[in-house]
Write a structure and sequence with these properties.
Shape: globular
Largest sheet: none
Order of helices and strands: HHHHHH
């Protein structure tokens, strides 16, 4: 979320608040440990972002022509927003191949956790997290058909 433009409809604080509300709403959840909590939080963030992308896509199709304020025009060379729908499909495919790497991506990309935090949450070594993160980024870049590396 820190790479999104200032006027983006879903700010980081809104994402965290929505995730919290959904976590609190899960009344029968028994948290096993810290890893379980962070895995669920990052997965919920992924779902919220994908739902927002789907809703935005639906609005675009229904509107026909979209009016854009001059302040909302992206500057050439700015980092592009990730396509959350394509990323979601790629992550679903990655999960069938290697669920652990998918969890690492969810925690790093969606929850913004550092490698050290992911290692503690998933009870893995930092070296394993780094290796999984590197391999998952390469796999996702290939799956998404990108020539450049997936954003950190």
């Amino acid at each position: 979320m820190r790479r999104e433009r200032a006027g983006h409809t879903l700010q980081a604080s809104a994402l965290v608040n929505e995730t919290y509300l959904r976590l609190v709403d899960i009344q029968q959840m028994q948290w096993h440990d810290r890893a379980h909590f962070f895995a669920m939080a990052s997965r919920l963030m992924r779902r919220i972002l994908v739902d927002a992308a789907r809703a935005k896509g639906c609005q675009k199709r229904e509107a026909g022509v979209e009016q854009v304020a001059i302040d909302d025009v992206e500057i050439a060379g700015a980092a592009p927003s990730p396509d959350f729908l394509a990323l979601n499909d790629a992550l679903d495919a990655l999960e069938t191949v290697d669920a652990r790497k998918c969890r690492v991506v969810e925690m790093r990309f969606f929850a913004g956790m550092r490698e050290e935090e992911v290692a503690v949450a998933l009870h893995m070594s930092i070296a394993t997290v780094k290796r999984d993160w590197r391999l998952a980024k390469a796999w996702l870049a290939r799956e998404l058909g990108e020539t450049e590396r997936v954003a950190n």
